[in-house]
């Protein structure tokens, strides 16, 4: 007998898949289409007449076994059609809630891959939704889209998992490195019940610190009062000098030089990458992008050499240190002791030189920045457009180095010109003017150089003698009370430093307590504590993420304490508008958001040529509506880190701006995308090592590897 289905088979060809169709038509115990192995037994006959069967949820309705999966819905609970779309989908919605027997979804066995449940509406529609096409076995449609088979998917899945695990391991490595770099200890905070213990410990520390600070403040006030009383009476010049805020000046200078030194490092780094590249690449491969850019680099480098561009962070750091001690020790000691090993002219010359050096150096940094930008643009073009197929090891290694370079210096490349702060210029000017006016009053005059044409030869020794004399005299006169002043000054400075350090420490502890106390931070436990600490330490070195997306530049800046962190959005043009998106509020973990974001990432990364990810979305077996993903626990390689920001600038006619920053595990920090979810509320997709779950162990899903 030539059946209709055989005819169908002849029409659509000889695919092995369709051959099995013929065998599945009709009732075959243990092989009911759309039913999991565990539930097959429900379709065995349970009647005295072994050709009969009753609906699973309606024992009174008895059918022939051949009516199972025959394409006609006979049972009110739909149980006779587990492998076709004959029964209305809503039947299952209500029935499956009460019955654990009736499956709401179609079961794909997917031999060689991962079994999953799909919706009944996807069954027998001409499209294979199961990789074994079991959902189309009972179909009368011609197959439109077969898709990848299960063996293929298994291979793609394994590749995906190994790529993801590699990315995870690299991210974790960087995270460990960061923790080491910033001295976060493995187990100081991670203890059982650590949250409460931590709170208690921090509270105790705050009390202790506050007490010490209060006592030291009293001592400081006393020391200051005595010192200044003495000073006012006995040394008006020093008294006025003390009114100048030279500590603040010194720290402004150090701050500026941190930037200067970083720019120098950045310059050295990019120049090194390009120098190595220009030696290591293979010109004969004729990768136009690479060859043209190397030419451009050599031209730029020659120009830099002509302009005598020198950037050396070691020199910068040394200068910074010297300047600091100049303003905090050398000059104060000069006024305090009223003597110098150097001549007056030297002292004055140095004072003017220092002023010019500071201004000039900061200014000069902008020249270096210009070259950094040019070099970076060259590497940028190469890394985006070089021909991957040429497999040029020199180029590949340069591109890798460039990516690391971006992680480290990305923000400085984007930064505009650097200026000395107004406060710095003002303080510098005050101190320099004061020194120039007053040093001649406290130091003996120099031996005057003999002027030409005048008969001064005999004056020289006389001048020298007078200088010596006045030196001795001033020492004699001042000796007794100078000693006092020096020791008073020492004491005053000592307490000043003590108070400053204690105050800083106390502020940090308080910020830490605030985070621990924040009850909305439910996930805030040991991991959160460690990440917060790490972010703060990074913040204390002004760490920030900056990326350009859709013509806007976004900057996520971490601070110490964390609560001072901000996100800004700037228009990427000259004099563009800059808007505060939010201030840091809390740090936590969100497993659900992680799942959504991770799936988004997998789809984007692995679905270009494959339908793998669509085979990873499964329905729950029985009565759970929600979709889930069947890739084992792969999503847990992310810790689900979420940073919340609030209280940004008010939107026009709207709420204040706010943002959620989701961090996905990766070895590189980067802002990947920004979406405005609701009016003035943004979600940032960021990658970075902080998003890695350090305790993650991969558990694969259950594969169906046959019997
Ligand atoms: C067969 O039916 C009886 C009564 O209806 C029930 O108690 C029994 O569990 C059933 N057996 C199977 C295998 O479903
Ligand atoms: C699955 O597809 C691949 C590639 O099309 C093919 O080589 C392989 O034989 C197929 N496997 C099965 C079991 O059909
Ligand atoms: C800084 O550089 C600009 C332009 O190169 C120049 O006009 C200015 O005078 C410089 N300022 C100082 C203090 O060197
Ligand atoms: C801390 O939070 C992380 C992320 O939510 C979680 O994985 C971990 O199990 C938690 N640890 C404790 C001790 O609660
Ligand atoms: C970015 O700006 C350029 C030039 O103004 C414009 O052509 C482009 O469409 C903008 N892109 C987006 C995504 O807004
Ligand atoms: C981290 O991984 C472990 C083991 O795989 C898991 O138990 C834990 O829940 C994960 N943490 C998070 C935050 O997902």
TrEMBL record:
Segments traversing the membrane: none
The entry's keywords: Disulfide bond, Endoplasmic reticulum, Signal
GO biological process: N-glycan processing
Pfam families the record matches: PRKCSH-like, PRKCSH_1
GO cellular component: glucosidase II complex
InterPro entries, sorted: Gtb1-like (IPR039794), Man6P_isomerase_rcpt-bd_dom_sf (IPR009011), MRH_dom (IPR044865), PRKCSH (IPR036607), PRKCSH_N (IPR028146)
Signal peptide positions on this chain: 1-20
Residues in MRH domain copies: 531-694
Record's protein name: Glucosidase 2 subunit beta
């Amino acid at each position: 007998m030539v059946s209709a289905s055989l005819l169908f088979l002849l029409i659509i060809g000889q695919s092995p898949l369709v051959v099995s169709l013929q065998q599945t038509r009709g009732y075959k115990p243990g092989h009911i289409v759309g039913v999991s192995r565990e539930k097959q037994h429900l379709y065995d006959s349970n009647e005295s007449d072994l050709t009969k069967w009753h609906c699973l949820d309606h024992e009174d309705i008895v059918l022939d076994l051949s009516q199972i999966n025959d394409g006609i819905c006979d049972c009110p609970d739909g149980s006779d059609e587990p492998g076709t779309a004959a029964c209305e989908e809503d039947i299952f919605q209500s029935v499956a809630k009460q019955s654990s027997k009736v499956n709401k979804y179609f079961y794909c066995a997917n031999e060689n891959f991962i079994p999953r449940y799909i919706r009944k509406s996807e069954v027998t529609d001409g499209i294979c939704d199961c990789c074994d096409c079991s959902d189309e076995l009972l179909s009368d449609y011609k197959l439109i889209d077969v898709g990848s088979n299960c063996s293929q998917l298994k291979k793609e899945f394994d590749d995906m998992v190994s790529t993801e695990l590699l990315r995870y391991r690299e991210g974790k490595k960087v995270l460990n490195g960061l923790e080491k770099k910033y001295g976060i200890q493995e187990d100081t905070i991670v203890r059982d019940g650590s949250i409460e213990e931590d709170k208690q410990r921090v509270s105790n520390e705050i009390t202790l610190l506050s007490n010490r600070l209060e006592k030291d403040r009293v001592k400081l006030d006393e020391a200051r009062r005595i010192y200044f009383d003495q000073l006012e009476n006995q040394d008006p010049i020093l008294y006025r000098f003390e009114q100048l805020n030279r500590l603040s000046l010194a720290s402004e200078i150090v701050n500026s030089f941190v930037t200067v030194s970083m720019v120098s490092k950045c310059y050295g780094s990019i120049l090194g990458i390009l120098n190595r590249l220009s030696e290591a690449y293979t010109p004969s491969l004729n990768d136009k992008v690479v060859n043209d850019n190397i030419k451009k680099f050599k031209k730029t480098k020659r120009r830099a050499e002509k302009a005598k561009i020198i950037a050396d962070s070691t020199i910068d750091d040394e200068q910074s240190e010297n300047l600091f001690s100049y303003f905090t020790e050398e000059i104060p000691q000069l006024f305090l002791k009223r003597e110098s090993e150097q001549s007056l002219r030297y002292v004055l010359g140095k004072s003017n030189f220092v002023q010019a050096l500071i201004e000039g150096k900061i200014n000069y940094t902008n020249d270096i920045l210009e070259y950094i930008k040019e070099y970076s643009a060259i590497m940028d073009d190469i890394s985006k457009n070089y021909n991957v197929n040429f497999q040029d090891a020199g180029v590949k290694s340069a591109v890798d180095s460039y990516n690391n370079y971006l992680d480290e210096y990305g923000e400085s490349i984007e930064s505009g010109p650097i200026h000395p702060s107004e406060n710095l210029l003002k303080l510098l000017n005050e101190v320099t003017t004061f020194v120039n006016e007053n040093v001649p009053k406290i130091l003996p005059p120099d031996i005057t150089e003999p002027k030409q044409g005048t008969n001064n030869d005999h004056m020289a020794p006389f001048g020298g003698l007078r200088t010596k004399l006045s030196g001795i005299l001033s020492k004699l006169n001042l000796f007794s009370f100078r000693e006092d002043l020096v020791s008073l000054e020492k004491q005053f400075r000592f307490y000043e430093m003590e108070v400053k350090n204690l105050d800083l420490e106390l502020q940090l502890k308080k910020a830490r307590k605030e985070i621990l106390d924040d009850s909305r931070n439910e996930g805030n436990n040991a991991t959160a504590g460690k990440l917060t600490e790490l972010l703060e330490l990074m913040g204390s070195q002004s760490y920030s993420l900056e990326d350009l997306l859709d013509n806007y530049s976004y900057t996520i800046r971490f601070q110490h304490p964390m609560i001072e962190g901000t996100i800004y959005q700037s228009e990427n043009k000259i004099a563009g508008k800059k808007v505060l998106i939010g201030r840091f509020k809390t740090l936590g973990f969100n497993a659900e958001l992680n799942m959504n974001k991770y799936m988004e990432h997998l789809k984007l990364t692995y679905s270009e040529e494959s339908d793998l990810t669509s085979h990873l979305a499964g329905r729950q077996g029985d009565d759970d509506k929600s979709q889930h993903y069947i890739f084992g626990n792969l999503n847990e390689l992310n810790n689900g880190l979420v940073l919340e920001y609030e209280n940004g600038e008010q939107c026009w006619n709207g709420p204040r701006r706010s943002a959620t920053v989701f961090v996905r595990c990766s070895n590189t920090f980067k802002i990947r995308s920004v979406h405005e979810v609701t009016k003035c509320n943004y979600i940032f997709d960021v990658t970075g090592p902080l998003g890695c779950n350090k305790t993650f162990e991969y558990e694969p899903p259950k594969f169906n590897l046959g019997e």
